[in-house]
Amino acid sequence: MIIPVILCGGSGTRLWPLSRNSYPKQLLALTGEDTMLQQTVGRLAGLEDVAPPLVICNEEHRFLVAEQLRASLQSDWTIILEPIGRNTAPAAALASLYAMEKDRDALILVLPADHLIKDEPKFIEAVQAAAYLASQGYLATFGITPTAPETGYGYIKKGEVKKLNAEVSKRQGQEPAAYLIDRFVEKPDLATATDYVGSHEYLWNSGMFLFGAEVFWAELESHAPKMALACQQAYSNAVEDLDFLRLDAAAFLQCPSDSIDYAVMEKTTKGVVVPVDPGWNDIGSWSALWEVGKRDENDNVIHGDVAAYNTSNSLLHAESRLLATVGLTGHVVVETADAVLVAAKEHVQDVKHIVGLLKKQGRSEINLHRRVFRPWGSYEGVTFGDRFQVKLISVNPGAVLSLQMHHHRAEHWVVVKGTAKITKGEEVFVVSENESTFIPLGVTHRLENPGVIPLELIEVQSGSYLGEDDIVRFEDNYGRF
């Protein structure tokens, strides 16, 4: 049995301002109608003898992840919540512990949630080869056949050919189905990457793995005992919280942060690499999105309301208004409601430095979009000033906000779409479209949508302090206190 393990952490800083800490790239629809997470889940349909997926994510994203899994029509899944990111090796360790509870012989297929794979049959074929190797006690990773001297990827040098049984290794016209791993190589400079690609001895390191849970756990205990102990304690003391498994935070905070490569694969003698060319891209930068996007006659990839004149070889992405360009070549221009990025395409890897600068300045734009998602729906800032702000609030059908009060602000609600059921002090009443109500400072209140269409309302806040932390919750369906 293969248990898919989807790693859904990370913040995707190189895709700012679209990807942000509270809504990172794996939860965005970057290469199609489905989000990156939903695409990852969808490609599991081609596997045989596969269990429901295990998703590991940051607790901040738990409701977004759960909602996207529901929307992708997955009937069953498990979500483990990390209190803090600790890289991929602890995530694989937790997955191994989970899998060994289910089946001591289970194999785990570790997949980042933010990869694009265009040729899914080729990917499934490679998984089958890796599964055979894993059943023989090997730790398999997937090496992507390089198409260019890419400096943004790590590399794997192929070692001795690893023979498989005839059925698995029969891949007409292709190289052998697997190699022992000679060594892992960090991201190289351009000259070194060019030599690697020309030698045909190296593969891109995809960050995808398949191995027996019990075998990986034994290797982890041998090569990273402190990590294994911390993960064991965090998992053993985990508690169920609604639809999630919440790790013991104190134990997990003691866990070293390291990748699967560093913690195990570079030290084990059981590592093998399965070469594959499935149209893979890790969507790690805006230039990567340009590479995989649909280009027009001027080699531009365009999204949204864009007017481009004398512009070529560029990515132009508009979210909330008209974006107009004149005389650009080889640029990335990304517009959102509260931020605009303009970068030369060859320098998009440096977007992370902008994020670092904004972080030092304490800017909220690295964490939140103007539209902020909550488990019940979303809210979006419209305008603000001294002692007031205006928001557009959208509540999903059947959703209920917490029973709460505020010490420093009053609120005026105007329903513009749908029907609101409102609790105000001891009163419970319904407010319909074009009707309103006032919530005085200090009064306990609750908002819910009893209808079958989204509820939208305008909220006008007024008071001496309007921060989101001025909320005292008395009841909450989502466990937020």
What does this molecule look like?
α1 links the parallel β1 (2-7) and β2. Helix content is 23%, strand content 33%. The two termini are 39 Å apart. It has 481 residues and is of the alpha/beta class. The protein has a 6-stranded antiparallel β-sheet with strand order 20-21-22-29-24-27, with no helix packed on it. It is built from 12 helices and 30 strands.
Provide tags for this entry:
single chain; 481 residues; alpha/beta; six-stranded antiparallel sheet; five-stranded mixed barrel; 23% helix
Largest sheet: 6 strands, antiparallel
Radius of gyration in whole Å, from Cα?
25 Å
Adjacency order of strands in the biggest sheet? 20-21-22-29-24-27
Q: What structural class results from the helix and strand content?
A: alpha/beta
Return the average pLDDT rounded to an integer: 92
User: Helical segment tally?
Assistant: 12
User: What percentage of amino acids are in beta strands?
Assistant: 25-35%
Unreliable sequence segments? 169-173
General shape: globular
Note the gap between the termini: 39 Å
Proportion of helical residues: 10-25%
Number of strands: 30
